[in-house]
Amino acid sequence: MTGILRSRPASIVALALLAALVMLVATPLGHLLRPRAKLVPARVVVAPFENATGRHDLDVVGPMTGDWIAEGLTRTGVVEVVQPATTLQLAGDSAIAPRKRLSDVRFGEETGAATVVAGSYSLDGDSLVFQTRLIETASGRRIVTLDPVRTPAGTPLAAIEIVRRRVMAALAERVSPALGSWTSAIARPPAYESYRAYVEGLRVSVGGHWPQALQEFQRASTSDSSFYGARLHVGLAWLNLGQPSQVDSVARSLQPVHTHLSRLDSVLLEWLEASPLGEGEDVYRVSRDMSALEPASLWVYQYGLTAMLTNHPGQTIAALSRIDPQRGVYRGWSPYWETLTAAEHMRHAYKDELRDALRGRRQYPALLSALVSELRARAALGDEGRVWRLADRSRDLPAEPGWSEGAVRLFAARELRAHNDPDDARRMASRAEAWYQKRLDSGGDAADSSGLAMAFYLQERWSESRALFAALVASRPDQLHYMGYIGTAAARLGDRPTALVSMKLLERAGGDSRGIYTYWRADIAALLGERDRALALLREARDQGNAIYFKMHSDPDLESLRGEPAFVEIERPRD
Question: What does the pLDDT read at residue 210?
């Protein structure tokens, strides 16, 4: 994902120097050559314990130990704890540590934790022996080595609980005396088999394997009904699988026991309750709370994204500016730059947007999504020549979800038109038409037909666009955004009856669309000259959870409303 420095040394001496540099970076002192990490004094990261037994059936004990120690520290509220899902992501990130475990210091650096808890477990006859250490990230110094803890190999949780108590006692001396009062005040872990399934679910969910994760979390919660954390993760799995009714069922089942949940789990429950309802203010608030509780995780990005979608781009910029996009879970997370630059665009901070878009392109030179961020900033700054060169460059980069050369050219056409260059916009759309037509001549699919219809639309060839969208909606009546284009094209052609029929069909289909069809109705109303109705529908779409703010600025169907005080008020960022 990241760029690779390619050089051709002029001599064997240069090669030798390069090799020496690589060896130096690989040594324990190599971290001194990297930019100094920003460490949070009260932040602790618990690394998954290393399996030194040689038995793969005991692999799960490592993340289980890390999770249970982190759980205890989190419940105290005294220290800031990097959550296990984040450490599991780091432990399996080949971009950070190819084919080898992260060092203790790197765990601290990548998460901004001033203190690292790490360790290993080995076999001694029929016993497991746990070795635990506390590391100071800044110096790499081992500040505490705990006495070994032994347990029969078949009952590791007994030893894990002892290790947790000793870690908390050691941190009480190191970080906060308040931790000392918690060493015996936290419940014991769930049944071993239940916990084993839960940790396995965490592990596979980190890789995005949600169906398998769901099975593991369900197994964990079924075998131990008091294991509320497992049930919460059942809800998260359903959420990621796009099943809002299942999410709601899980959330309702946890309401009677919400007083038994930790602060972190309580907010996670709020997230499950709010997320299926849309990207509204409740989701914004909960994602903000989650990011505060898990500042080293992807929740900070989620907060930034939700802030942008709910028209708080200033909060997006503030949140994402606190993140180092080349450390921790954000290394390889290209959406960081997409969201940051989109928020800057919403605030008309186009020079900042271009600066950050160029930083994103340096980190991800082969990604179309990174190229698009620069293209949007160039269009806003009036650099049409560079916009065209970037669109041409898109043909040399591999397609990715949501982006292809044709999609880039359609996007460029909308941005050029939004920033007062309609002639260039039509020419760019003509290039998109040629790309999609070539695809269709070679076989193509419905997505290519839709792209061609949008290219016609952006060239103001309304009749051709409407005919193609009508053919598409006949074969896919469930894709009602095609009906939206039919309605807007009809309105532009003066065919008011067809436009009104489209509006009625979209209104009936409202359902669980999060305001998507309401937004389409606003477009059609604006083109029919019904300004007050269009504005009312935009507000309704917003209240239904539709992220209208970023779309409005480049929507050609709303051009007649631009400059109206009521429209400006809807579009204006809240902060």
Answer: 93
Residue 240 identity (one-letter amino acid): N
Q: Which helix (H) or strand (E) holds 44?
A: strand 40-46
Q: What is the mean pLDDT of each run of 10 residues along the chain (575 residues)?
A: 34 34 38 65 92 91 91 83 88 52 91 94 94 95 94 90 89 69 58 87 86 95 88 93 91 91 89 76 90 90 92 96 91 93 96 98 96 97 96 96 96 94 94 97 93 97 97 87 95 97 89 81 97 96 85 94 92 89
Instruction: Answer whether 31-189 and 350-460 agree in fold.
Output: no
The superfamily in CATH containing domain 31-189 is TolB, N-terminal domain (3.40.50.10070)
- pTM for the model: 0.84
Q: Which residue has the tokens 């781009």?
A: 313
**Considering the domain 194-277 in this protein, what is its CATH number?**
1.25.40
Contact at 8 Å (CB) between 129 and 150? yes
pLDDT of residue 4: 29
CB 270 within 8 A of CB 286: yes
Tell how far CA 202 is from the center of its chain.
Answer: 17
| CATH architecture, domain 350-460 | Alpha Horseshoe (1.25)
**Among residues 510, 509, 490, which one has the least CA distance to residue 500?**
490
> Got the DSSP string for 93-158?
-TTTSTTSPPPHHHHHHHHTEEEEEEEEEEEETTEEEEEEEEEETTTTEEEEEPPPEEEETT-HHH
- pLDDT score, position 147: 94
CA distance 253 to 250: 5
First to last CA, the chain: 33
Asked if residue 519 lies in contact with residue 480, where contact means CB atoms within 8 angstroms, the answer is no
Burial of 312 (0-12, 13-18, 19+ CB in 10 A): buried
- Answer whether 454's CB lies under 8 Å from 404's CB: no
368's tokens:
């179309």
Q: Give the residue extent of every domain in the chain.
A: 31-189, 194-277, 350-460, 475-575
